[in-house]
Amino acid sequence: MEMPLKLTVNGQPRRTYAPADALLIDVLRDRLGLTGAKYGCGMGECGACTVLLDGAAVYACLVLAVEAQDAEITTIEGLARNGTLDSVQEAFAAGGGVQCGFCTPGMILSARALLDANPHADEADIRRALSGNLCRCTGYDKIVKAVLAAKG
Amino acid sequence: MTVSEAPPFATVGARGRRLDADDKVTGRARYAGDLILPGMLHGVIVRSDRPHARIVSIDSSAARALPGVVAVLTAEEAQGRFGEIVKDQSVFAADRVRHVGEPVAAVAAETAALAAEAANLIETDYEDLPAIFDPIAALAPDAPVIHDDVASYAGPAELIRWGNVLAHITLRRGDIEAAFAGADRIVESSYAAHSVHQTPMEPRAVVADVDGRGRVTLHSSTQHPFGVRYQLHEALGIPLADIRVVAATVGGGFGGKLEASLDIYAALLARAAGRPVRLVNTREEDLANGNPRHPMRFRLRSALAADGAILGREAHIVLDAGAYAIGSPLIGGVAAMLIPGPYRIPNLAVDVKVVHTNNIPFGSYRGPSGPQSVYAVETHMDEIARELGIDRVELRLRNAFEDGDEGPTGQRLGRVSLKEAITRAAEAIDLATPAVSDHPNTLRGKGLACAWWLTTTGSAGCGVQLNEDGSVVVQIGAAEIGTGAVMAGVAQIVAEELGVPLERVRIIWGDTDATPMDAGAQGSRTLFNAGRAAQTAARDARQQLLERAAALLEAAEADLEIVDGVVQVRGVPDRGVPYAELTAGQMWMSEPILGRGAFLANPPAIALDVIEGSVFTVFNAPSFHCHAAEVEVDRETGQTRVVDYVVVQDAGFAVNPTFVEGQMQGGAAQGIGYALTEEIVLDEGRMLNPNLALYKLPTTLDTPNIRTVILEYASDQGPYGAKGVGEPPVVLPPAAIASAIADAIGSPVRTTPFTPERVHRVIREGPQAATKDFPL
Amino acid sequence: MSAMHARDDVFAAGEPGLAYHAPRDLEEALALLARYGEEAKVLAGGQSLLVFLSQGLIAPAALIGLRRVPGLDGIEERDGGLTIGAMTTQHALESDPTLRTRYPALAEAAQAIATPQVRQRGTLGGNLCHANPTGDPPAALIALGASIEIVNGDGARRVPVQEFFRDYMEPALQPDELLTAVHLPPPVGSAYLKHRIRGVDNAIVGVAAAIALAPDGTCSEARIGLSGAATTPLRAVAAEAVIRGKPLSDDTIQPAAEAAAQECDPLDDTEASADYRREMVAVFVRRALARAAERARQGDTE
Lengths: 152, 776, 302
Ligand SMILES: Cc1cc2nc3c(=O)[nH]c(=O)nc-3n(C[C@H](O)[C@H](O)[C@H](O)COP(=O)(O)OP(=O)(O)OC[C@H]3O[C@@H](n4cnc5c(N)ncnc54)[C@H](O)[C@@H]3O)c2cc1C
Ligand code: FES
Ligand code: FES
Hints:
The structure holds three protein chains of three kinds.
Chain A: E1 2-9, E2 12-19, H1 24-31, E3 50-53, E4 56-59, E5 72-74, H2 87-95, H3 104-117, H4 123-129, H5 141-151
Parallel strand pairs in A: 1-5
Antiparallel strand pairs in A: 1-2, 3-4, 3-5
Chain B: H1 21-25, E1 41-47, E2 53-59, H2 61-65, E3 69-74, E4 81-82, E5 89-90, E6 96-97, E7 103-109, H3 112-121, E8 123-128, H4 135-138, E9 165-173, H5 176-181, E10 185-193, E11 205-210, E12 216-220, H6 225-236, E13 243-247, H7 262-273, E14 277-280, H8 283-288, E15 296-304, E16 310-322, H9 328-338, E17 347-356, H10 370-388, H11 392-399, H12 418-428, E18 442-453, E19 460-466, E20 472-476, H13 485-498, E21 505-509, H14 526-553, E22 560-563, E23 566-569, E24 572-578, H15 579-583, E25 594-599, E26 611-612, E27 623-634, E28 640-650, H16 657-676, E29 682-683, E30 686-687, E31 706-711, H17 728-731, H18 733-745, H19 756-765
Parallel strand pairs in B: 1-14, 12-13, 16-17, 20-21, 28-31
Antiparallel strand pairs in B: 1-7, 2-6, 2-8, 3-7, 4-5, 9-17, 9-26, 10-15, 11-12, 11-14, 15-16, 18-27, 19-20, 19-25, 22-23, 23-24, 27-28, 29-30
Helix pairs in contact in B: 6-7, 10-18, 13-14, 16-18
Chain C: H1 10-13, E1 19-21, H2 26-36, E2 40-43, H3 49-54, E3 62-65, E4 75-78, E5 81-85, H4 90-95, H5 97-102, H6 104-111, H7 116-121, H8 124-130, H9 137-143, E6 147-152, E7 155-160, H10 161-164, E8 165-167, E9 170-171, E10 178-184, E11 189-195, E12 205-213, E13 219-227, E14 234-235, H11 237-243, H12 250-263, H13 274-298
Parallel strand pairs in C: 1-3, 2-3
Antiparallel strand pairs in C: 4-5, 5-10, 6-7, 6-10, 8-9, 11-12, 12-13, 13-14
Helix pairs in contact in C: 6-9, 11-12, 12-13
Bound molecules: flavin-adenine dinucleotide and FE2/S2 (inorganic) cluster (2 copies).
């Protein structure tokens, strides 16, 4: 059975319908056309689906859409403001933090959550904060450096 | 000598921003699994759950009767044979399955859940056959035979095959008996190396569309659009012209997306249903049904002079190919070339047997056969050094290839960066100073490993067009799978040759109808081959621009130069004409500027008589490498942590150093995963750990900072001297880490991976605890 | 015949009739549980439950979300000890200053769970009710001598934490019951150490130790909790007995470690063999006792 959903995504109210057990990732991707969050495992093991709920990084594959109604949801599509990339996005793009790009939305959002909570994060903090986001392409070095660069 | 002075280039050699970076950081890049077409159905493949069985019957009537199910296909609907090298595969098993996961049926339905439900309703009745999972046992004369007659499958004439052996490759040089008879010392050791999975973060995905006449268009996550098109044609009998393969943004491949896999079933289902069909692997399907790295066994024996010169080497290698051949015959040939190592060994007797089992088919994973072979060879080298009492670096330098040497099959090597690589890596990790632990529970060790690698050939084509505003559009058949070879490398090459800023270049790639042919993102080949085609095409366009400008400026072509998209008389900026002016009239007034580039590399010549049974005999544009590692081993638990890692790699020329480093670091991280955490665990041919909790990719916490040193020993044929850079970095880490662990714990670890448990056993019981020998 | 469950379509994902409830208070939650009985599943952070649901391993008729029930969340000092609400997230545990200084074993266990995203949503109560034998908090709570508060429509009961783990992934909980809180007695010196393959993995083994010292330096109380050492989280009672009342030194710690290795019955899987796990229990009991004793000595507990 489908139920109405009222979500706040990237600062916009969004209304849709979904079954009670619909996962946030499926609603974002299939109902709201926000395909930036990727489906890499569905079991909390890869981080490709990472989005922010009230600023904290969570796995959208392990959140019920109904339970995301109380929160501000931020997806990768909502990070740039007025066409200007967020500093983390810019640092990833400029510094080789992106290769295939499949991990990138989740990585960037995890990094953004970290820097918002701890603007002075050092390399060890960054590695801990990104430990729930797998990347198979980069070996992480340029990702970690991009986050350090974004910190400014 | 290194070419390290700043090159006289504007764009190549610089750290340009890749053209797809902005789409990727904003979530706009579209991957195949993001696409939805009108009327799209969802497909599922039904797979065998038996390793070896006769199919008694398949009953799909209940599935067909389920409302919402649009197509159900089995072997009756698709009977072609295909295969990368040997034509041994069929689309669906008809009467016999040879591995767990072999497709037996496919379903398309209105929703994914319905498709899954229908798949579960298909009843297959099996009668189990004797199965075999150990390649050594599969060599026994009385072993169950997996293919009734391997030699009956169409395939290259070179192959020597019988029973369960699908390729027997021999490399014989010099007089091996004399070498051993004259040796001061003989060192013999055995190694076993395991299988790992490519695991791109994006599981395989494809959307097939179909027109009224059955012409299919695939939007696929593929490394090899033209290869997929050919395999579809071969497997399904569809004319090439009725198949269009368009690569979507590819979320990584590493060899796992070279073969047509989901593509075949999506095309079949779409044609049967007359509607678009999407297939997206779950992570479990992707892990359990791929073509992962080959498990390999090694027995190496070297004849040595007291001073460390390697006089001869005898080697017996067994590759487990699994149930079907895919690329295995060729990969066995690569292994044969790696067994001598990057060393001058005058006398060789190498035997490689590529063997069928009822395991899943193993295939191409970045640097196929490399990590296993280099681990075995380099660990053997360390054992030799210890046996002879010679320093590890010393032993390697003594035997290392030098400028102008001959490779194992007689190819001329040209300039060889190996000694510089060894020296730089040893310096970077300070190998001369023993590692010391600052904690009583831990041991520290340092190690290094060397290897050589190749750049695959194959054709590449490129078109370069100028728009009326002087901007540039590149059409290229190569695939951008994330490395940056196309969206950074090719873009920079075109910008360089045309003298325009990178921002003026757009690229359309990997579309079998819209771009010229390319042999795919495999074997470290894209930048070398596609980059060269792009260079040629850009130069062609540039020539056309110069000719037009010469006429307009009434100057000789030789007197013209190009500065920032303006053609001008050398040294006279006010006598110049911008590209936009040269191209503005090209709709009606002038021909379009259209550059053409086509390339097929010439591999070096070989002394053919030394290798037999192989379809792979030469390392084109070879490159030489050395990695060094420092590890910390917990003496009580065996847990190994890589605390420092250095990659020294010959890139020929780094068109974009950022992405060359990206390959070096990303490849090394995968190699570290091979060494320490990743392993496909098979039980009777069934994968026991098909998820990302149990199949352990390294995380940020398990990957050290990977330091990089790029050497540039130019190749003859690559653009600006570039060589392949993608594969080599994954090839050395298991060897370098094994070397460092042995240094720390005082004994070699002769089986991979170096899990805490395995290292713990070797610490307690010595090297025999992890030695798996095998009879010849 | 196997066809993996492909799930990328929201329309199809809903079991007909699966209901979601978000009760506003404990009473309402308990009433719902009583009504549905076995048909309902309590949803806390969802970090284990939603995996099971997506995998088709469970098919409840209703999910009862606890997010809106007041009073289940938070860390509170009480009777010299601490009461932690079931819905307190693992992230809150790892970052709580009181926990970090006075009950480091629990803060360390929380920090050792999976990844930041899991800890952000995952709760202490959910972790305990999931009852995974390789979970981290159970071992820490065993060592800290915690008890668990369980409530149903008829009232509340308390059980010592080690009695809560009945069998493999089976908590001692009736379908109409909720775990509402965890009570910790006054603090002692404690530590949790985890041996795992990658930095985000489940434990090969995890060991928590808690030590109280008598004024003469002998060990007046010792508790040891083990993860990965049996089909349930385990209390190493034989090992505790070896050191209780004795001075803490290599001479007593080593035999205790060996006793723990003897009394456990470890798992055997693709991560590690049972034999290896048993040896590692000894190694990490030794290390955890040493660290807990050090903390007890330093009075790290206040
Ligand atoms: C990838 C991954 C890795 C993980 N690694 C670890 C690890 O290393 N160590 C570790 O300890 N854990 C690990 N976990 C598990 C994690 O700690 C979960 O958060 C935890 O097990 C469940 O907590 P939850 O709040 O998410 O509960 P849920 O998933 O919501 O519920 C879990 C179970 O408990 C029941 N339940 C929940 N709360 C209550 C309650 N108050 N009363 C009665 N029943 C209740 C539910 O009905 C369900 O059966 C991992 C999880 C994932 C996804
Ligand atoms: S898809 Fe959510 S963590 Fe992998
Ligand atoms: S860039 Fe490919 S997975 Fe990270």
